[in-house]
Every structure is written in structure tokens, then in C-alpha cells.
Design goal:
The protein is built from 6 helices and 10 strands. It is of the alpha+beta class.
Length: about 200
């Protein structure tokens, strides 16, 4: 099956919050999971700008600034991006909070799992009126969503049952990945599953 054409169902993966990052807290004197404050800090001097994303320790509220841009010439910063950062635009905050390259450059350990919701109806494989399903899963942010967990949730099955369906090829990802990516097509052989 090809991903050309219309999907039978679309599921949108929506994270509920940005991932926390683990850092040494100077005040607590131990490693803590810092929470994204969803605010930028900008400092402009002599035609250059520094921009950080601010994280807070949930225990003592001390902050850690995650460097996004350092000593950048103001003229090099896109005007629209600058405006969104000054306004603490949520989409822009989340884009940087989910950017593993930024976190890696700041030597921050990021949270491996983030709670999410699925926009799109669950499917009962026993009652759905089709022999095959083509499901498009969209996930605009790099969220570590495992296929087994998503399908177990949306099909109302156990993870072990879903894993068996994947191993038997009755449910498969067109890209062959084990994680949901930006646009992932899931192909389901409903007739074969019902026959089990």
C-alpha cells in the first residue's frame, strides 16, 4: 500500500507539555528535573543579542537558562522570530523546548517520555466496517511516541497483543520505524485480525 491518497483515519499526536530537562540545581545541590517556564529571556547589548529559554527547578524555583543564541548580531536574527520570542509565543517556545540539538548543545538530559493526547477516534477492530485501514498519524514535534503504546491506546488492546500484530505483519508502518514521526502511515489488515 502506498501513502498516496486519502487515509481512512487521521490521528494527531498533541503533547501536553514540553519535556523537562535534568540538570544540577545550584540551590538544591543535586540533579533535578527542570520544567520549561515557556518564557524566553533576551538580552541585547551593542548590536548583539543573547536569547535563552528559561527552565525552573520544581523544588526550589531556581532557574536555568538554556542558551538558544549567543552574541548573535541583531541583524542576523529573523524579525518574525524575534517578535515571537519577545511575545513568548507558545509554538516558538515549544519548537525550541523539543529541539534535542539545542538541549544536547546545552548538555541537558531531556525527558524520554512526555504525556500526550490523541486527537482522532479510537478504532474497534472487531466492528469497524472495512477489511483494511490506512491511518495517518501526524506528530509535528519530535515526541518519542512508541507505536505499541499508541496502537494499544487507540485500538483498546494490550501492548503485547499489538506487538504480536506488528510481528505478524498484520499492522505495519510504511516507513518501517518503531516510533511515530512527523507523518507516519499505519497499515492495518483488519480482515486478517478478525480471522484470528
Amino acid at each position: 500500500m502506498s501513502n498516496k491518497g486519502r487515509p481512512d483515519r487521521i490521528w494527531h499526536i498533541v503533547p501536553l507539555r514540553p519535556p523537562a530537562v535534568r540538570r544540577h540545581c545550584q540551590h538544591c545541590q543535586r540533579r533535578q528535573w527542570f520544567i520549561c517556564s515557556e518564557k524566553f529571556r533576551l538580552n541585547r547589548t551593542h548590536g548583539r543579542i543573547d536569547i535563552w529559554l528559561i527552565y525552573k527547578c520544581p523544588v526550589c524555583s531556581s532557574t536555568w537558562n538554556c542558551t538558544l543564541f549567543s552574541r548573535l548580531k541583531v541583524a542576523q536574527l529573523n524579525e518574525d522570530l524575534h517578535r515571537r520570542m519577545v511575545a513568548n509565543d507558545r509554538r516558538t517556545v515549544w519548537r525550541f523546548a523539543f529541539d534535542r540539538g539545542v538541549l544536547r548543545a546545552n548538555q541537558a538530559e531531556w525527558e524520554r517520555t512526555v504525556d500526550y493526547r490523541v486527537e482522532g477516534e479510537p478504532i474497534d477492530l472487531q466492528t469497524v466496517e472495512t477489511d483494511t485501514l490506512r491511518i495517518l498519524v501526524t506528530c509535528p514535534l519530535p515526541l518519542p511516541v512508541r507505536v505499541e503504546g499508541l496502537l494499544a491506546r487507540q485500538f483498546g488492546l494490550s501492548r503485547s497483543r499489538v506487538k504480536g500484530l506488528l510481528l505478524d505483519g498484520l499492522v505495519r508502518l510504511e516507513a518501517g520505524s518503531k516510533r511515530i514521526q512527523e507523518d507516519t502511515w499505519i497499515l492495518v489488515d483488519v480482515a486478517a485480525i478478525r480471522a484470528l
